[in-house]
Design a protein that fits this description.
- The structure is a homotetramer.
- By secondary structure, chain A is mainly alpha-helical.
- Chain A has one domain: Tetracycline Repressor, domain 2 (Orthogonal Bundle).
- The first copy, chain A, has ten helices and no strands.
- The longest helix of chain A has 24 residues.
- The radius of gyration of chain A is 20 Å and the shape is elongated.
- Chain D binds a DNA duplex through helix 2 and helix 3.
Amino acid sequence: MARPATPHTTDKPVAAMLKSDSNKHDTILRAAITVFARNGYFNSKVSDVAREAGVADGTVYLYFKNKDDLLFSIITAMLDSFIAQVRAAIAPLTSPLAQLREIARLHLDMLGRNRDLAVVFEVEIRHSTKFMEEFSTKKLSEYLDLIQQVIEAGQHAGEFRPEINPRIATKVFFGALDEMATNWILSRRRKPLADAAEPVLDLLLYGFVPRQTVSSSSSA
Amino acid sequence: MARPATPHTTDKPVAAMLKSDSNKHDTILRAAITVFARNGYFNSKVSDVAREAGVADGTVYLYFKNKDDLLFSIITAMLDSFIAQVRAAIAPLTSPLAQLREIARLHLDMLGRNRDLAVVFEVEIRHSTKFMEEFSTKKLSEYLDLIQQVIEAGQHAGEFRPEINPRIATKVFFGALDEMATNWILSRRRKPLADAAEPVLDLLLYGFVPRQTVSSSSSA
Amino acid sequence: MARPATPHTTDKPVAAMLKSDSNKHDTILRAAITVFARNGYFNSKVSDVAREAGVADGTVYLYFKNKDDLLFSIITAMLDSFIAQVRAAIAPLTSPLAQLREIARLHLDMLGRNRDLAVVFEVEIRHSTKFMEEFSTKKLSEYLDLIQQVIEAGQHAGEFRPEINPRIATKVFFGALDEMATNWILSRRRKPLADAAEPVLDLLLYGFVPRQTVSSSSSA
Amino acid sequence: MARPATPHTTDKPVAAMLKSDSNKHDTILRAAITVFARNGYFNSKVSDVAREAGVADGTVYLYFKNKDDLLFSIITAMLDSFIAQVRAAIAPLTSPLAQLREIARLHLDMLGRNRDLAVVFEVEIRHSTKFMEEFSTKKLSEYLDLIQQVIEAGQHAGEFRPEINPRIATKVFFGALDEMATNWILSRRRKPLADAAEPVLDLLLYGFVPRQTVSSSSSA
DNA sequence: AATGAATGAGTGTTCATTCAT
DNA sequence: CATGAATGAACACTCATTCAT
């Protein structure tokens, strides 16, 4: 139940955050996602990317400064696209709790739609501490801030416990989703990643510990 | 409150899961942790590790099959040591909830004691999908199974909600801790990582949503 | 004394041996001189030359066969222009000694007017033995022959010692001027190169060794 | 005639300024001379040098920082060796004029012994203005200073004209020899380069212009 | 066991040249 | 004539690994 009309299926599929047509820049970027996901960034050759994109090696350098810039551009594009989608999706929702639910669903939905994208995001983004720092202080923190704002709004609205630290709650939320995605990538079973959204949310929202079904009322 | 005598400070400091003396095998492994944490696995040269360890390049190959084997050995040693510590620490505890609490604390305590170790564990372990698959299906899953057992025990004991999926709960728990560690590595502030254990646990155990202050309302 | 009206200042400035206007062929050639002088032939890119000339890369190939042809054309143009100037300048002079003096002056004057030109001539012309052979047996030897003829004429006229080998004298003469130019390029002081003409000539004409101020006879 | 006992033939042949045995550093350097002379610096591949030296590509980098360092080392070694030989050869000579003569002979003798060496020295040394500046302000100027001192000593001794500028005389002297060498490289005839020493010296010392045989003629 | 000199396969990047527009 | 995007051959340099000592 719930979440009935929400358009999981964005007409602009996540995988196609890059205009799928013509545009050689995007063709190369898509090829890089495929290749990096297959072999990992360090084990991928620029010429692999070029071949996958159907261009000459040198052409890659007409559109990207160097190999690193390829990875950088992929992740920037992903996060930009994702953040925009999330903003658009939660804007109409009034309840912060509903918004948080929507973020979780979109997060998993997006990564679950394109395994290659997910691999790059979950694995290759960590290819160096420098690289991670770069993103965690820029693009990624933009996303995390968004989540944190929702959580704080939820506290004001009385939907979330006032005593929890919103910063930590954000990390717990993000970490939980991130781990689901990482596991999904590694697991052989191809159950849709988005299926995990509901149970994860239930856990995060209501905790491991049972609510004292209180009083006698339940038994009554 | 609580957890008074629990020996946070294992007499065998985490960093020295490798016997700190003589043993050239361990000297090289420690050197590798330092070097990999500093530059990342791919940007580290075997000769860097050798120099750090004070041995000749060729000597590394007397103890390790190749460069990959170095990283593999580090993580295996880390996880073996960690799992052993966790088992020992939770054995005397009877309440699964107390056990889970102890795991969280130890997890963060261990990584927080040695940033290099944490960097390798959080970042370098992901240096390839193959590598991750290798671990997630072996060592790491041994750790995750341990957590899962505690959660299931907690469900039987009535300490955790019976309806939650223990497998998913395990991932949420691990993912939350993992994210705390990753963030701690990247953050400049050097607040002890273990300080995060309590608030994270509170969030996971009791959820984001306030418990209905029960009483009248429910019965109303 | 002497050489009063000789037009050091050719109305066609040396630098503009290439018609300075319109003509795209010459525009590119001038750009090439600038660029080659700045970075050296091998470190210059065809696209640098194109940009300097304000044309597209491909346009360079409409006027020159390839990059080598650019350098070749520069030096050919320089030497053609120079030889023509020299011929014109010495034609009216009757004394071979005066002619030789004029050649020295013009030689240094021309190179000293345009450092870029000098750099290309002194440095880049030597970019390969093949290249040098090409020129030394063609254009350059035309210039050297000119000098040699003047020297031989001087011998017949009794102005130069009959016993000297004109071929060797030519090389000594050219080598001395060449070295002055090379040094001038490298030196920081920007004293006009042509200033060196007089002292060099004095040395070459009268030698290092003092003329026996001859005994008393002269005074007699 | 003249120059009877002077040991043109240094027991340590010029070509072997590099100990010809074992020493891999020198083997590579000799290979580089051969290869650079054959194809020119820019057209030579490091792997060509390695093959010529009979070592692996990587080995070159154990002894030289990079390709540029190869050329740099060649010329430094040449000049060091040459300057030492010249100093030793002129030390016993008392007459500056005899010393200058000896320098000219040695200069041409050395280059004439090993065409490859000469090619590198005459052609490749100019592979860039930066490179030339480097040498002209260091090693080469040490050589030029040596010549200049001899000329100045000759002036004091009354062997050379007092009014000539020693700095310019040095350049004229060096330039003349340099040009002889350059021409010899390019010429097909293989007449010993050192044969040119005597006529060149005669020209430089006594000039192009005949000494007034004075006496009667003038008064006639 | 330990060494470290030697190896040589591997790759990111450049840039002269072409050609469809 | 002119363009400049695309090409792809070429190459300096690195570094994991070996092995004679």
